[in-house]
Amino acid sequence: MADAIATTSSGRVRGIGDGRVRRFLGIPYAASPTGERRFALPVSHPAWDGIRDATAPGATAPHRVKDFPGLDVSPLIGTGWVRGDDYLAANVFTPDDAGTGRPVMVWIHGGGFVIGSKDAAIQDCATFARDGIVCFAINYRLGVDGFLPIPGIPTNLGLRDMIAALHWVQANAAAFGGDPNNVTVFGESAGAMAIADLIASPLAKGLFRRAIIQSGHAAMTRSIPVMQRLVRKLAKLLRITPDKAGFMSVDQEATLDAVDKVSQPTARIDLRDADGHEPVFGISRFVPVHGDDVLPLQPLEALKRGAGAEIDVLIGTNAEEMNLYLVPTGVRDKVGGLFATFILSRSQPRARKALKAYGLGQAGKKAGQALLDATNDLVFRWPARRFAEEHQGRTHMYEFDWRSPAFGGELGACHGMELPFTFDSLACATGPQGLAGEAPPQALADRVHRIWVDFARDGSLPWDAFDRESRKVFSLLDGKALREEPMAAQGFLP
């Protein structure tokens, strides 16, 4: 190991090089969002004297990670809150040489906008640096601090943090050997949802050239009035006024206690819109809002009007996304028809008809499987296709369809399963409680990771673009693009 020095816009940093990859960890891209700045707009970090150590990941946004039945999810989402002030920070991974003008990738982590960090093991960007990419991974504010439209504070602070980070990347990419004119943002789940939103945001225009949206789309935003129901609910739980002064008066531990309570399935909070749709399907209470300067329009509407047409997009889903939520928990095998209808009715006004469209009532079809099949499409797969239909720029669609042998082969191609393949980090997800089970195929990781690298380098992909007529979707397992017919879900979503 040898010291590696880089000069950023705030000062010099010391990382570590191993002959192949240089790592610079925990570099602040914005001032600490603590104290009086807790709910403030992100601003540049003050300059420092001397050389700042960048050999440890540092702090994360406040959050709590809970155990997941039968799975070790820590490689996906990290081990929880690491306390510290400078958590609006980036990790940077570069080839360990003096090269310049390299393609840049920026990773935005998932976690339902309430958990996760840039440091989860499965998303180690060193594999991209190994293959000639300058790769950044960023933190952003979560939960109440990042995605609650509290009266008196700026909306969408988590998205604003990401935009600040992308400005920082523009200013500092060259210092790490990267080309600021060749930036690809990529993310999974909430990180992918955020990227879909940034494509539609006028405030992010010009900050990246390409985007990879993994299990994400533009449908998971709420209006500010709907989200302010959540503001009032949390304020009541915390016994504070539903405004900036009230939320500034409670510490992070109390805030996280309230988030835990309001996130329970039994919490009484109605976040449906005027048409009876809850676009997040209960997965998270916290999502970006539309109707401000970050997202003046609902993002899908913005795409229809040409927003983000200059950006090349690679978007895709996993074939069995909702298996992650309904198989390990036993929900799929326990629910009957009435309860399945009740569950879906909290998000979908025509729940019974939707379930029937996915086989409820048919001989041999269990209610839990109908719920699983319906929500796979309603929550993830069809909204991603809708993004591909409305994005007026170049758009390519993939499906990750390798099935994990975990849970007796029932976990399948669930949410998050593509991550160890895209990052070529299978070791993190392998084992008795690993997401990918025992002996996942390295050859598939080689293929998928190479597709991501090539797209970031120059936009190249080995299949044709998606449009409403051809509907070409590339199977990452088979290596072929085939026409995909519209789904039953299309009749139940905007």
From TrEMBL:
<dbReference type="InterPro" id="IPR050309">
    <property type="entry name" value="Type-B_Carboxylest/Lipase"/>
</dbReference>
<comment type="similarity">
    <text>Belongs to the type-B carboxylesterase/lipase family.</text>
</comment>
<dbReference type="Pfam" id="PF00135">
    <property type="entry name" value="COesterase"/>
</dbReference>
<keyword id="KW-0378">Hydrolase</keyword>
<dbReference type="InterPro" id="IPR002168">
    <property type="entry name" value="Lipase_GDXG_HIS_AS"/>
</dbReference>
<dbReference type="GO" id="GO:0016787">
    <property type="term" value="F:hydrolase activity"/>
</dbReference>
<dbReference type="InterPro" id="IPR029058">
    <property type="entry name" value="AB_hydrolase_fold"/>
</dbReference>
<feature type="domain" description="Carboxylesterase type B">
    <location>
        <begin position="4"/>
        <end position="476"/>
    </location>
</feature>
<comment type="similarity">
    <text>Belongs to the 'GDXG' lipolytic enzyme family.</text>
</comment>
<dbReference type="InterPro" id="IPR019826">
    <property type="entry name" value="Carboxylesterase_B_AS"/>
</dbReference>
<protein>
    <recommendedName>
        <fullName>Carboxylic ester hydrolase</fullName>
        <ecNumber>3.1.1.-</ecNumber>
    </recommendedName>
</protein>
<dbReference type="InterPro" id="IPR002018">
    <property type="entry name" value="CarbesteraseB"/>
</dbReference>
